[in-house]
Amino acid sequence: NVQYTIVAHIKDTKKFNDYAEDLIAELAWYIKKLDKDFFVDLDSSWLSKEDTKLFAELLMTSLYSFSKYKKSNKANYSVTIQSKHINPKKFAILAATFGMTKDLVNDPSHSVHPATFEKEVKKIFAKEKNISITVFNDKELVKRWMMGIYNVGKWSEHGPRLVLVEYKGSKKKW
User: Fold this and answer.
1) d(CA 6, CA 128)
2) Pairwise CA distance, residues 115 & 160, whole Å
3) Beta-bridge partners for 27
4) Are 115 and 70 in contact (CB under 8 A)?
5) What radius of gyration do the chain's Cα atoms show?
6) Residues 18, 53: contact at Cβ < 8 Å?
């Protein structure tokens, strides 16, 4: 398998900010189309710390694909990003949670309704120790004056719910 290396040699950061989304969407399109392994070196760019993170996050979002119902839902490419400004462990967590969230949102409403959403969220966080999950049903939504959520879901056969996921923090440092 051939590996492609992309060196982000960007000098004019003003232009990068103006065209970042379009540039990275094109890059993601080529990565998906070529189905190869890519190495993106952001350390040789003149991007600021914030722009480097923006580049990586935009690339991650551009590479997302909802493939739950496809016959083959495995990507045939990989992307490795090198940057002294990006913590690989934190970025992997961000990418995984981004993918889970997008998958839940992109599933059809007949498949994911408030009850199945609650069940899926509880399943995702079942093994996490520092997470608490609170579910507000229709009565609790009215009691808390969360009328937007209540009114949108009150006529559904499943009824409205709000799932609140709270992270309690960790004593471990990255």
Assistant:
1) 36
2) 9
3) none
4) no
5) 20
6) no
Q: Give the largest CA-CA distance in the chain.
A: 59
Per-residue exposure over 152-173, b if at least 16 CB sit within 10 Å of its own CB, e if not:
ebeeeeebbbbeeeeeeeeeee
Structure tokens at 39: 């190495």
| C-alpha to C-alpha distance for 10 and 45, rounded to whole angstroms | 5
Q: Which amino acid is at 85?
A: H
Would you give the DSSP letter of residue 26?
H
* pLDDT, tens digit (0-9, with 9 covering 90-100), for 113-129: 888 989 988 998 888 88
Q: What is the DSSP letter of 36?
A: -
Taking only the tens place, the pLDDT of each residue in 12-57 is 666 667 777 888 888 888 888 887 788 888 887 777 888 888 888 9
If DSSP states are collapsed to H, E and C, what string results for 108-171? CCCCCCHHHHHHHHHHHCCCCCCEEEEEECHHHHHHCCCHHHHHHHCCCCCCCCEEEEEECCCC
Query: How far is the C-alpha of 98 from the C-alpha of 93, rounded, in Å?
Result: 8
3-state secondary structure (DSSP) of residue 78? strand
Lookup: tokens for 123: 């399943």
pTM of the model: 0.69
How confident is the model at residue 150, as a pLDDT?
Answer: 93
Within 10 angstroms of residue 6's Cβ, the number of other Cβ atoms is 16
